[in-house]
Amino acid sequence: MNPAAEPELVVVIDDDYAMRLSCRKILAKSGFQVETCENGAQGLEAVARLKPALVLVDLKMPGLSGMEVIPRVREISREIVVVVITGYATIDTAVEAMKSGAYDFLPKPFSPDELRLIVQRGLERRRLALRSNQAEMERELLKRRFVSFVSHQLQTPLVAIHQYLSVLKRLEETEDAAAKRREWFDRCLKRIDDLQALIRDWLTLAKLEGQCLAQRRVRVDLKQTVESVLADNAEIAAANQVTLDSRMPDECLVRGDPNCLSVLVDNLVGNAIKYNHPAGSVTVSVETAGEEIELAVSDTGIGIPEEFRALLFDEFFRVESAQSGGTGLGLAICRKVATEMGGSIHVESEVGAGSTFRVRLPAWRGEAPGDA
Amino acid sequence: MIDDDPDYRASVRCLLESEGFTVSEASSGDEGLRLLAQDPPDAIILDVMMRCCCEGYGVTQAIKFREEFAGYRDIPIIMASSIEQSPDELFPMASEVGMIRPDYYVTKPLDIPRFLDVVRRAVAKS
Questions:
Q1: For labelling, which of A26, A81, B39, B58 has a CA lying 20 to 30 Å from the CA of B70?
Q2: Residue B100, domain extent
C-alpha cells in the first residue's frame, strides 16, 4: 500500500454475517477502508457509488450470485479488481469466475494473512495489469494453486482407502465385514487405479513443463501411431458399443516425438469413446494442410457446451465435475504436446451431436539443424 | 454425515451402524442442510473440504447464524478433515470476530477408537 495516498477502499459482498464481519476487521486492521454488503444487488449499488479499488465477492449467495456480479462490476469499471471467495475444491467454478473477469480467488476457509495477502497482491497487480496481458497472469495464478489442489486430490482417495481397510480390520470376524469385504476391496482397487492415473498424468504434464519430453524432433509416421492407438482402444470401445474408424493417406509423416504423439492421440481417442453414446462412433482422420498435417478425432457423443470450450484445455477443468471419472489433465496434456511440437489444437462441438478435436502438427521435411 | 466422497461415507456408515448408531448421508453442504431440517440428528459429522461451494465451514456458519436453522444450533458438529490443522489454526480470528468454531475436530483418516469416543460424547451432549 501507498501510505501517502488515501486508504484504498474494499467492498465485501457476502451473505454470511460472520464472513463480512471478519473480512471487515481483518482488512480495517491493515489500513483499508471497508464497506460490506449482504447481497449482490446492494453490492453493485455500493460499487457503482463508491468505485472501490477491490471487490471481494462470495460466489454463492441467494439472489444475484457472485458469478452474475463479476461482469457487472467489470462494466462499472475495468480497473476494479474482483476477488472471488469460494469453496476450496471448486476450481472449475473459480476458473469460470476468472474468465468472466475475476482477478483471483480465495478458497474458504482462509486465514487473516491469506486474506491480506490476496488483497494486497490484487491491488499491486492492478497497476501492472493495466499494461500486461491479463490472460497470461490468470494462467500463472492457476499454476500457483496447482500444487495445493493436487495434494488435496491425492489425499482424498488415500483417506477413502485407509478408512475402508481400517473399518474392515476392526469388524474383522463379524457378519458385516464378511458381507462388505469383496465390495470394499473392489472399491479400494478402483480408487488406487484412479490415483495411479492421476499421478501418471501429473508426471506427464510435469515432464512436459520441464521440456524433457516433446523435445525430440524425429520422423514419426502418424498413421502407425493412430493404428496402434486404435488397436489399444478396441476392447474398451467394444465394451462401450462404440465403433472405431479411420481415414488416412498411405503416408503421413510428422516431425516430433513418437511417445508424446501416442499420448496425445490416445487421450483424444479415449475421450471420444468415453463421452460417446452407445452405438456411437469415433473417426480419426489425417490429412495434409500445407506445411502441416492435420489430425482430427471426431465422436458422435454428448458434445461440449460453448461456454466451456475455452476452458477445456486447462488443468483440472471438467465439464461435469468428476462425474465421468478421469483426472482432468488429459486435454491439458494434449495441448502441451501439440504446442511443444510447434503445432496447435482446437475443438469444434455441437451439444448432443458430438465433438471434433483438430490437431495441427508440422510435417516432416527432412532433418533440420538442431534435431536430436 | 456430510461428505462428498461416497467411499468414505460407506465405510464410516458401516462402522457407526456396527456401534448401534443410525446414519443419514448427504454428499454436499446444501443437501446436508436440507436433511437437517427433514430429520434432525443428534450429531453432525461434517467434511471441511467438499466440491460444492457450500463446504464444511459454510455449513457450520449457516447452522450457527442463519435464522432458518435457529432450531438446530445446539446440535453438536464434528468437523473432519485430512489437513492437519486444528480449528484454531483454521479460524485464527474466531474468538476475535465472534465466529463459532466446530464443537469437535477429527483428522481423516479417522482414528477409530478416538472417533467413536468423540461421537459418543457429542451424542450424549445433545
A1: A26
A2: 6-117
